[in-house]
Every structure is written in C-alpha cells, then in structure tokens.
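Final report, closing paragraph on structural work. Over the funding period we assembled a curated collection of sequence-structure pairs, and we close with a single example.
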Amino acid sequence: MSAGQIAALIAAGAFVLLVVFLAIALIKLGRTLDEATIAIRKAHENADPLLHGANDTITHVNTQLERVDGITANAQAVSGNVSALSSVFTATLGGPLVKTAALSYGLSKAVRARRGAKNGNGIEGKHSRRKRRSGKR
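Its predicted structure, as stored:
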C-alpha cells in the first residue's frame, strides 16, 4: 500500500465516522420532534375544555355585571330622589325652621337678661340697656 492509499483509507474512515455521528444526531432530533408533536397535540386537546370553561365563566361574569349595572342605576336614581327631597325640604321647611329657631333663641336670651336684671345679681345680657363697665366685655 502506498501513502496515497493509506490517506484515502483514513479519509474514508473519517467520512464513515462523520456519517455515523450525523445519523445519530438526526435520529435524536427526530425523536425530539416526535415528542414535541405529541406535546402540542396534548396541549391542543386540553385547551379545548379550558376555552369552553373560560367562555362559560366570561358569560357568567357578564351576567353579574349587568346586574351590578342595574343596581348602580337604581342607586343613582335613589340618590337623585334623596337630593331632590332634601332640596324640597330645605326650600319649604328650612327657612321657617331657621327663623323659628333664631326667634326662640333671641327670646330665651332676652328672658334670661330680663330675669337677671330683675334679680339684681349683675348678670346683664349682651343687648341690655345698662351701660357696660369699662374694661369688661
């Protein structure tokens, strides 16, 4: 055997080893792709019930939100009615009640001031006709 034949034999052996390593890598890659395909199929099969459940849940939530919208609208109407009622109450009874309260307060102060002046205990009302002593308020 000559040196060229030995080199060709070594090159052929290296090529066979390269083909064997590539074949092993391709077989492993094929198995990996098969496992990925199986995982995708299982995910697809399990996703369908999940999507149906999510759809049912969203439908239920929408129903509840419609109820909440109705309750909110009713509460808004009630608050508007209460506001209108308080405005009517203030307009019709508020003014006379304030005037009556002011009158009764003024009368009670006047009666107390007059009683104090009659008893002579020196208690004078704020609006009494006696002159104030200097330095005191």
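The chain has a mean pLDDT of 86. DSSP finds one helix and no strands in the chain. We thank the funder for supporting this effort.
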